[in-house]
Amino acid sequence: MGWNEGMIYFPPTYKYLNNSDRYAGYARHSKEKRKTLACGNYGDAMSLDLLKDFHWRRVKVLAESGADLIAFETTPNKVEAQAYTELLDEEDIKIPAWISFNSKDGVNVVSGDSLLECASIAETCKKVTAVGINCTTPRFIHDVILSVKK
Questions:
Q1: Is the pLDDT of residue 35 over 80?
Q2: What HEC string does the chain produce?
Q3: I want to staple 40 with a disulfide (CB 3.0 to 4.6 A). Which of 25, 77, 86, 89 is the partner?
């Protein structure tokens, strides 16, 4: 018998800007709001430097807040993982961090990047004390944990 996952009938996740009713990714000079699907594929316009600039202030605020840990959750691609690890090193963040990824198929993160490549990027940073998986179909979790653990 066992457990069988049924169809998922809920809308996709969208990211909002903090303390705002604006969706992340809105056109800065436009009054139009637009949804940005949390799929991890930001297109060719998104670079490592832009992601680092985007996350820099948040990382600094968390590091200076007295938090015990910084949790980078539901990381959708390897360039974002790279941005986190470089910020942790370059900004000499003193508290530990973990990075969790989500997987669309048990092998790749939602952007299509290899989950193992993403985990390897996280592993290169001494301040990253754990790598995890979240927001992933339950049937993939066991195999993902085993493959990342290797």
A1: no
A2: CCCCCCCCCCCCCECECCCCCCECCCCCCCCCCCCCECCCCCCCCCCHHHHHHHHHHHHHHHHHCCCCCEEEEEECCHHHHHHHHHHHHHCCCCCCEEEEECECCCCEECCCCEHHHHHHHHHCCCCEEEEEECCCCHHHHHHHHHHHHC
A3: 77
